[in-house]
Amino acid sequence: MRLLTEGPEAFALRTALADHAQATLDIQTFMLGDDRAGRAVLKRMLDAAQRGVRVRLLLDDMTSVGKQELLAAFDSHPNIEVRVFNPVPAGRGSWLGYFLALAVDFDQRHRRMHNKLWLADGVVGITGGRNLSDEYFEVAPDDVNFNDLDVMAIGPVVSALSDSFDDYWNHPLAVPLRYFSQAPTSAWRDLLVKFSVDARQKKALSTQPSAQRFVGEAGQALLLSLEWAPAIAIWDRPEKLDVERYPALELTLLGQLGDAFRSLDQRLLLISPYVVPTPAGASYHEALADRGVSLTVITNSLESTDQPSLHGAYMPWRPVLLSHGARLFELRPRPPARDGPHASGEVSGLHIKAMAFDDDRVFIGTMNADPRSVWWNSEVGLLIDSPALGNELWSLAEQGMDPERSYEVLLSSDGRLLWRTEMEGRRVILNEEPGGAWRKFKAWFIRRLDIEHLL
Question: Where on the tree of life does the source sit, at the highest rank (predicted)?
């Protein structure tokens, strides 16, 4: 195992695996951007298909809206197949039509495949929070870049990740893209020409120098830096997205993590961009506190979140968590770049989905700490028994808890929330939640609706 904390490195490793795949390349993702990163991975997959590699791309259907022509051209290659999961059959030409069609069958169609896998030859795998788009690899030219985390794995656990991919690929909800959109059989050639022109005009994302770190002698050195540890691949069964109302807990990833939660002795770390505890989560935390287990939560602040509405669902739970001893840290936007500049835009938000159970077990995957991840989306991840990776994840958390990087939320003696941080080298305590009026309105508005169970 190896944790991939830096976006450019995580991207370069994916391209290196694609460039050196010999037989199969299986990619599963929630989001594929029509941007520099998205086009770069499509180019690498096309190059692999040209070498005779079988390429399978499984997308959540929502990511195909507005990209059907591009994806159909990609799908036209004889060694490539694209499937979309839980498709909306009508209104696919525009977002307006898509959402109108989704509303007609909302109970079924709002369930999304949130899994992310990158599997090369069935022997190397990557999973974690990153979608295939600029902002997840810290190369977006604007101010939206996410702090994210993946884990690379080799060994038997990759076979289990491949099984999870096949579970989704072969499920009836995974529909070949050609049922909705087809391109001429030679369209992929035009796509390669377009990608080549983009590269010459410097519009494409070039990672060749970075990717060299993972091949040849440098790649052999990488093997020596891996952490060898037992790991279990855990995923929601695809049937979870194909049942009426709530799925059975045993179909869910959270249900499979039950033993890890029950065996806690000292402390639990939860890192998630979205946190919606719900009554069940608050009761569980109270039970943890009664056992002497401490909880540390790192999430986005109202300033940094890309979903202020979701933050609104989290806000009422903070006094409850704090009153039972939890520590809450909310990431500030655009922290100072003490560790050197990022590849392009500055990191402006948190997208990591990870947990540390005590000091010797970690879970790295795609699951947010909200009802949508538990009940309505599908997720995947690795549960790893490793004191070394536990120490690495806690060290990463301590960076996030630095007062220059985050607000620590406190509960005053009279029940008010306070935000402790550091500004211009001085520790300060804020009496009002940081964030603009429009963000505060969106956070307030969501609490007026009875939809917490869907968030």
Answer: Bacteria
252: left (phi over 0), alpha (psi -120 to 50) or beta: beta
Buried b (16+ CB within 10 A) or exposed e, 292-314: ebebbbbbbbbbbbbbbbbbbbb
For the chain, how many structural domains are there in total? Answer: 2
The CATH code of the domain that includes 146 is: 3.30.870.10
Those residues whose C-beta lies under 8 Å from the C-beta of residue 93, and which sit 6 or more positions away, are: none
Report the DSSP beta bridge partners of residue 127.
Answer: 117, 151
Q: In what order do the strands lie in the sheet with 294-300?
A: 231-235, 380-385, 361-365, 354-357, 267-271, 294-300, 327-331, 406-411, 417-423, 426-430
Please report which residue ranges of 201-301 form alpha helices under DSSP H. Answer: 208-211, 216-224, 253-256, 258-262, 278-290
- Looking at the whole model, is its pTM more than 0.70? yes
Known catalytic residues are 114, 116, 121, 351, 353, 358
Phi-psi region of 401 (alpha: psi -120 to 50; beta: other; left: phi over 0): alpha
What CA–CA distances, in Å, run from 110 to 60, 137, 234, 305, 365? 11, 27, 23, 22, 21
* Domain stop point among 195, 224, 253: 224
Distances (CA, A) of 127 to 30, 117, 149, 381, 400: 12, 5, 9, 6, 21
Amino acid in position 56:
R
pLDDT tens-digit readout, 139-168: 776 667 789 999 999 999 999 999 999 999
Residue 293 DSSP class: -
Q: What is the residue range of 270's domain?
A: 231-454
